[in-house]
């Protein structure tokens, strides 16, 4: 199934967000406030199926995690470099892969 890609640059709450790194469904965005302070957000891109909402049709698309999913699918890192944010993202991805493999292994052993 094809999904419309997530925006690589947009504004939210007066802040400017720019995608600085992407690896599969994992991405790092720099978030710069109107006063010039930059922090980084690491996200797991969410896949949303086509739907109609409020009379408007939306295609299959990649979306930023909602605020209610923050801490599970999104993290904010302040006072760090872009390189550190990318390393954090890669670590999150590896941890999830290891956790998934462990669950699969346990299910196989239980059979």
Report on this model:
There is one protein chain. This protein is an alpha+beta fold and 111 residues long. It has one domain (9-110). The chain has one helix and nine strands, in the order E-E-E-E-E-E-E-E-E-H. The chain has one helix at residues 82-110, and strands at residues 9-12, 15-23, 26-32, 38-44, 46-48, 51-53, 56-58, 61-63, 74-77. Strands 1-2-3-4-9 form a five-stranded antiparallel beta sheet, with helices on one face. Strands 5-8 form a two-stranded antiparallel sheet. It starts with 8 loop residues before the first strand and ends with a helix.
How many helices does DSSP assign? 1
Distance between the termini: 32 Å
- What are the segments in which pLDDT stays under 50 over at least 5 consecutive residues? none
The total number of structural domains is: 1
- What does the radius of gyration come to? 16 Å
């Amino acid at each position: 199934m094809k999904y419309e890609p997530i925006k690589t640059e947009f504004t939210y709450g007066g802040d400017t967000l720019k995608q600085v790194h992407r690896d599969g469904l994992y991405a790092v965005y720099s978030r710069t406030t109107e006063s010039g302070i930059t922090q980084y957000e690491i996200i797991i891109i969410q896949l949303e199926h086509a739907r109609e909402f409020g009379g408007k049709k939306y295609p299959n698309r990649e979306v930023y995690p909602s605020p209610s999913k923050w801490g599970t699918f999104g993290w904010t890192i302040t006072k760090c470099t872009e390189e550190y944010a990318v390393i954090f993202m890669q670590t999150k991805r590896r941890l999830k892969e290891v956790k998934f493999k462990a669950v699969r292994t346990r299910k196989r052993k239980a059979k």
